[in-house]
Amino acid sequence: MPDAKTKTTDDKVIKSEEQWRRELSPIQYAVLREKATERPFSGEYEHDHRAGTYVCAGCGNVLFESDAKFDSGCGWPSFTQPAVESHVDEERDVSHGMIRTEVLCAKCSGHLGHVFPDGPGPTGLRYCINSAALKLEPK
Hints:
Protein name: Peptide methionine sulfoxide reductase MsrB
Enzyme class: oxidoreductase
CATH topology: Metal Binding Protein, Guanine Nucleotide Exchange Factor, Chain A
Cofactor: Zn(2+)
Oligomer: single chain
Shape: globular
Radius of gyration: 14 Å
Family: Belongs to the MsrB Met sulfoxide reductase family.
Mean pLDDT: 92
GO molecular function: peptide-methionine (R)-S-oxide reductase activity; zinc ion binding
């Protein structure tokens, strides 16, 4: 989805904050660029059960497959694993008085959500992801 003013470096998408603001909705910008969190149970994909591939709303990077999605009851779309491990980055997050693992898009560094070690098999992980960070490409 890069436009003429978008730079890519080693598969990274680099845009100015002005470009991001123009291209993303206000909630997408807040989540992806400012690390905001949607209110629980408010996101577009929380109860969406269509088959497909979830890509980054900022850059189109493939992130999760619908067959890895499960209902965790936490209020955000949850997945057991990324579609491609190298398409997500994880960083330690000590904001808000908590210690968590933040999940970011490896291509555009957009904030996606957090991963927790309380999910079902096969991984035991729960990738708790903001709907605003995702775009579903139905199969």
